[in-house]
Fold this protein.
Amino acid sequence: MRVVFMGTPDFAVPTLQAMIDHHDVIAVVTQPDKPKGRGKALAFPPVKEKALEYQIPVYQPVRARDPEFVDLLKKMNPDVIVVVAFGQILPKSILEIPKYGCINGHASLLPMYRGAGPIQWVVINGEKETGITTMRMDEGLDTGDMIETAVVPIDPKETGGSLFDKLMKVGGQLMVSTLEKLENGTAVFTPQGDGETCYAPMLNKKMGNIDFSKSAKEIECLIRGLNPWPSAYTKLHGKSLKIWDADVVEYVSDAEPGTILEINKDTIIVQTGDMALALNEIQLAGKKRMNVSAFLLGYRIEAGEKLGE
């Protein structure tokens, strides 16, 4: 097939590679370069870097819906447009261009977790499984007819980062399968309907501020879901304290949530709204990320003190 690929971040790169390996990728469309780092030098999106490796023409419209760009896509005459984490909503004028439509690889088992942050939210919400769904795009937000799904179990210690890595590999394989079915006429299109769904909004740094009045399980899921970005955090002695790894533990206490109950060689145990949380890996502002055992060698903290103040 003649494929136009639209995508931007790391997550989209394995699917682009799969398209390059199996189809004729005639163009790549991605977001404009952005300033990065202290020097604010313009950095290429990961998808652009991969396209340039193969000398594939790259287009970076500020607004893909602009008539000039829509006309350019029409002249390319693609059989299909493959979209993975592109970052712009496509108008009807683009959706109607390719013979086989615009096919999106979405990182959830639709119709659940529509939106920009499905990978992290399934971890935050304590789900047991997730996956990738390919769908034929319509004008709604992740509402098009589903074509194929691939289910991926969520491990007990899964983080947003580790699940991201799993799903982006699965996404490329599933898209190859979907395009094969489209081409040979065996694809089955399943409407999502009006059943249960869950919106997965974009992440922001404020989400990471831990509320210790919530249950230990809710907090532990939040910590994993926001690892590596934007990360879960609290305060210790007025300084920001990121928490990278923790476990739910049973502990009988009537202390206020956020109170440090016990300190041992490897963990700091903190009261929550239900049960307690054993902190295993933390990072104080200005310091490196480290295990609690290493942290306690150089920092004094006592039971009875309260986090978040």
Summary: The two ends are 59 Å apart (CA to CA). The helical segments are 13-22, 46-53, 67-76, 92-95, 118-124, 160-184, 216-225, 292-298. The mean pLDDT is 96. Residues 160 and 225 are 5 Å apart (CA to CA).
